[in-house]
Predict the 3D structure of the following.
Amino acid sequence: MDLRTSRLELLPLDPDEHAEALHAVYGDPAVMRWWTCPERASVERTRQLLTEELAGPGALLWAVRRAEDGAVIGVTGLLGGVALPGLTWILARRAWGRGFAAEAAAAVVDHAFRHVGHDRVEAWVESTNTRSIAVCRKVGLTERGRFVQRYGHRDRPHEMIVLGRAGTPDPVSVVHLQPVVQVVDVAATAALLVAVLGARVSFIAGEPAHVAGIVLGPWSTGPGLRLVRPPRGECAPVELVLDVGPGFVGLRESALASGVAGVEPIVDQPWGRREFALRLPEGHRVVLSTPS
């Protein structure tokens, strides 16, 4: 089904028909900077990539054609083989800065809700990709969460933002989850987390302290936990897993430098993660994990 906007025509993607024109997109390193794979070296490699993307279960992809001159300038649509419909778009560099991406993405979102029957769509955008984040906001997607990912051609992991939009307002939304960890010395443990993990103390109460809020980062809110002193000083050990990004190795160095006991070696896990752990004085095991 063709889709039309005031300036664009969205045509069902045909790898054989559109690969040559789209190689100007997928063969450009600047355009592919945030993509899941590096730039394609040939028209045939571009055709192969388009074919693979179309093969995902539930994929709906369109070639973006400019109405004024008939030039094919990119691709937009919904990714297949994902848990929730994944909004995607990519445009030739010559088409940047004119609002085409938001115009095309808005048409896809409208089609997804009105004609396909989806009740929500989401987009995964790298946190440094400010252009794509702006497109998401223009078409009504808002931030729903963050996680760390590493593409196979990258030498470092990166932070991804999940932005989403529901067809009707969500009746209930869990905004934040905060585990509670029992510790004998709240103030000392808070200071240790500040030194090792770059955490921030959002509040601390009592003399001596019996409760503290810890934010695992420099901002006013974000991933965090609450430290509490148990009534009788007995703490059942727990395990916490922290998903971290490019600073993974530096965090282990900070842990070793702080003198905290039980800093374990970095291990490559079979589920595609690199991990190391440290232990708090009460025996709590804190695992720091990043994509391999």
Summary: The CA atoms of residues 272 and 292 lie 5 Å apart. Helices lie at 15-26, 43-54, 100-116, 130-138, 186-197, 248-258. Residues 3-166 form a domain with the Aminopeptidase fold (CATH 3.40.630.30).
